Amino acid sequence: MRRPNLISKWNSQSLAKQFLVIGGVVSIVAMLLVGAFVTRMIEDAVTRNSAATTALYVDSVVAPLLPDMQTSEALDDTVARALDETLGQGALGDRLLSFRLWRSDGTVLYSNDRAMVGKRFPLSDELKTAFAGKMAAQFNDLDDVEDETERLAGKPLLEIYNPVLQPWSGQVVAVSEFYEIAYDFQHSLNRARLHTWLAVAGFTLVFFATLSAIVLRGSRTIENQRHALRQRIDDLSALLAQNEALRERVQRASERVTALNESHLRRIGADLHDGPAQLIAYASLRLDSRTVVGSPTSPARREQEIASIKASLDEAMHEIRTICSGLVLPQIEAASLSEILERSVHAHRQRTGTVVDLVTSSTSVCLSPSAKICVYRFVQEALNNAHRHGGGGQHVIQRLQGRCVTVEVADDGPGFNPDDVGPTSLGLAGLRERVESLGGTFEITSAAPGTIVRMTLNTEEAEQV
């Protein structure tokens, strides 16, 4: 369980942080490896150059004192004393801690330590290299058996193995081993090491900083793109959710509108049946009466009967026209919102003879035809309900708040409890469905005295519907 958590935590980090961690570790490891390699090469080069200079100087001093090493198996006392005097005094005496002359079989031909003369030791790698004709040198590496005296000295020593060549043949006949006291060399070597490490560390730091800047810039771009993409996905998800909600609302509204249309048709049929149809049927029956078609009667009675039939037919025609005027919309496609409100209020005044106060906003509002029809039907139905149930004064108020247009129809009646209105109420249910199908809101506020029916539409959404 711990490893997946660590992996998940690691993957959750930004690319910049991951690069800084991994790149930092790799850079440090690379710096250590490169620094160690370059330092080793510089140490070898400095040691070899310094040893070559010292070997050349010692060889120029010592070589004239040596006999023919090709035929001599040992140094006589004269040569030994000459070497003692030369190596023990002057510049060489101050620079050299010890000096040995080796034969190819590992025998010490000469040493400033008399106890070492004549002893035989295994050939070290440096001696083998020198007998092969190449100079060998190392600094403070006193691991050989014969180096016990030098180890006890506790001084920085440059150990040099230099081949002794026969002048006329160039053949290696012996190897001179000497140890130079190397305080100056140690200081120079330490300074070279410090400069090397500083150069490697500086180059690594600049290289890593440059890469980090590039990666940080790329990571920032990727993070910005990722954030923008995530924001787009969230926006699309929100839009899909809204579209789904709107689709469900439209579907419910369509089903509700179908049911409401059927209910409206039944109500219109009932109005026609209970009103004009009854009056026409009454007139038809009176036309078949004996007063009109029977035996002659009093002319006055007949005129009275005909007048009654005409009045019944006139009333039926008036009711039919009233029903038709409520079904047919005026030409409102090119009208403004204030003109639509004025026409709706004017039609209600003519139909009912009531007084309606109208207050509109001076700011013009652009609405789609479907939104204009919704506003007209809202005011028409709300005023009819207020006239039928509320009584008293009626008021129509239109306001514009930001991008939302609000229309209110109020009365001064006794009010009612909106919770008592069932979903089968044609007027209020139809208004709610009309308004919500356009993305608007429908509200009813009722408290004695008075009732307010309010609709709100977003002008931007209403322009697109």
TrEMBL record:
SUPFAM superfamilies: ATPase domain of HSP90 chaperone/DNA topoisomerase II/histidine kinase
Domain Histidine kinase/HSP90-like ATPase intervals: 370-461
Record-given protein name: histidine kinase
Pfam family, one: HATPase_c
Coiled coil: 236-263
Catalysed reaction, written as an equation: ATP + protein L-histidine = ADP + protein N-phospho-L-histidine
InterPro entries in alphabetical order: HATPase_C_sf, HATPase_dom, Sensor_HK_TwoCompSys, Sig_transdc_His_kin_sub3_dim/P
Source species: Rhizobium sullae
CDD domains: HATPase_UhpB-NarQ-NarX-like
Lineage, highest ranks first: Bacteria, Pseudomonadati, Pseudomonadota, Alphaproteobacteria, Hyphomicrobiales
PANTHER family: NITRATE/NITRITE SENSOR PROTEIN NARX-RELATED, NITRATE_NITRITE SENSOR PROTEIN NARQ
Entry's transmembrane regions: 20-38, 196-216
Enzyme class: transferase
Molecular-function GO terms, alphabetical: kinase activity
Record key words, sorted: ATP-binding, Coiled coil, Kinase, Membrane, Nucleotide-binding, Phosphoprotein, Transferase, Transmembrane, Transmembrane helix, Two-component regulatory system
EC number: 2.7.13.3
